[in-house]
């Protein structure tokens, strides 16, 4: 027994490095509720009135079948959606229905506005959100169809789209089963252009009895009373019903559960990018970013709605369940696909209706289909997956280098140190405060000696009356006021500021110049990267802490129309500038504000959280939500931005943070310093072990990012993505899969046990004890402070790098250890992706290897299944070996030696047996060549 525990301790030490060693509240009055927002108030009123009328309500929207243009070979239907006014006349709304190449259905409805004249404004409805969200306009595919006076049926693959022409509605059937109904409840509402005089005229034809005129031409919210609302009411709204579903995910950013809540009799979820101070948990308040994409999950299929609109948006959710106990067997049988449904109501302040409906076999396929439209996450620079140390602010050059050296002194790995706004001269971006940072080039070079990087903050607000902001005004590349006759001036960190308009293509050359090699700000350092904060944009004296909605952008578009995508345009401009600076280095950009497509060029974090246990707990569903909507490179400020965590919370947060795809410790300027060594023992050692474990897992994490860059798969994976057939997993958001590791961080104080849910019948192994755990359901495991609850799924091969190094760059040519957990069939499989970790040569020159490890039939083998092992970098891997292979759940009686074959050579390797596992010591195989090891005795 003693020998078994000694063996287990050695194995755990190998993985974790466990060796013996001596708040506040959101200022809600600043932000609108639905009732404060004219368009949301009006559309909720509309929905309420339609519901009162019930089945007797006749939709005002229809399509004349004679006016349809059906181009089945081009995958396109065009026509006019007719909105009936009170006198029987119609407003004609041009529409397109298209079948995308991935067999998704897209609907676009526009309005040709006439009678509006303005030199400052584009009279069109904003229709360019997809230009920013998509990688390119999607290809279309053919369909078959049938047409009658009242119905158009499109058939494509395993799908049918049934379009009701007389009372506009679209039903999507997948494999013969209804899955999505558009305009199911007749909540379609496109507020057509009409003047205030036309609307207020006696017996106006423009206002239906079910409509409201609340705040149609003015804004009564105290901070928005100056809003000109030049077009009057122009909202778009539409309802969608998911049939056969109970749970929906997505539409970040909110500090709420993974499974979205019913909003009946409460606030809808709001998508409006704001600088929200000390946000609340379990809240539907808007936050810093918006991704208008929702996923529904069920065992039979999954469905998605992508609402491509960048204006202020609210989403109502209503969940309905049939009472099976009160139905006859025949009723249950005949309606089994519709026992549950989720009704959603999407309302946007302006723009067009542009929506993509997705139905697939499982949630991963829905996420992948969305990613084909908006792009998959870009493979990040390896260093960016290491640990980031940040606070507002490190004081000066000596402070930065002292912090860096203390990590080495305490043998804690880290890759990046950060500088917040205080490094600048009077908060003028692209400058340095010379008395504090006299030689930033020297500082960067010193960091580079140990493979470390520096990230500096650059925000979009530019202090007036200095060179950079004066150039913005001279070049006319700033956001303008409502008259478009001068650059808008508001207040932010520097005081009076202007904001660069990164929707303007002329802003890009100017932005490039600020980052160019040899510039005063950036010099020639290759280890300088950028943090784009405050890009909602945050405007301290603006309504809801952001830009007035009637400000004007390039193209004469109101800010109202583009608000939610401004942050994306800003961080994309920075990404492009960094590419121009160093074309051979993958940029690292962190953004606070985001939109669909942001995953292509940035990482994100959940903003200004607090040092409280509930924020640690909330961080997991927040990041899981980001992962299912395609933004995998997500994290939260470890230990909380505001406040001072106690030592237990600090430690537990590091143990949770090592699983965040983006892993950064950060703190407010008024928070006490809390670098890992400050807490003292035993906390420092426990945090050190957690950080080292993150670095050991970098091969796993990097491989996961590679796979995600191909198919959009989550890095932190909800259990419902692993076992979509198990409905018990759908609301679980306090544990997750990380590759084949099932993790449940401790998120409550004083907790030394956790109950972890296993979603299937496969064996799992407790990583801390190697105990075999079998059986779907909850299992209690020990979780003392020094322990992270982790189970390894059987049938897995986990590649790690076990040696401590100061940074990820110094690990590049370290050997690998493979952990193999056999399933009940004595099989296992895993993958490893390797490239140089920083350049684009993996995509430009196939300079990478993608390796499949497979165990079974009494052998373990490694095969290169993609890439080229002879390229500039991969050829250097000829000196990188596998130094040990640990088998858990393998043959009961291990052999004394195993036979190894690689190329035309063969040899034997020693086996070290233990109770429950055994190790092949120094098998000597090279990582960039195929090999095979026979396990036969």
From TrEMBL:
Native source organism of the sequence: [Candida] arabinofermentans NRRL YB-2248
Domain Glycosyl hydrolase family 31 C-terminal: 712-798
Domain Glycoside hydrolase family 31 N-terminal, first and last residues per copy: 94-316
Protein name, as recorded: Glucosidase II subunit alpha
Location (main, coarse): endoplasmic reticulum
InterPro entries tied to this protein: Gal_mutarotase_sf_dom, GH, Glyco_hydro_31_C, Glyco_hydro_31_N_dom, Glyco_hydro_31_TIM, Glyco_hydro_b
Record family assignment: Belongs to the glycosyl hydrolase 31 family.
Lineage per the UniProt record: Eukaryota, Fungi, Dikarya, Ascomycota, Saccharomycotina
First and last residue of the signal peptide: 1-25
Every Glycoside hydrolase family 31 TIM barrel domain range: 378-704
GO biological process: carbohydrate metabolic process; N-glycan processing
Entry's localization field: Endoplasmic reticulum
UniProt pathway annotation: Glycan metabolism; N-glycan metabolism
GO cellular component terms given for this protein: glucosidase II complex
Entry's Gene Ontology molecular function annotations: alpha-glucosidase activity; carbohydrate binding
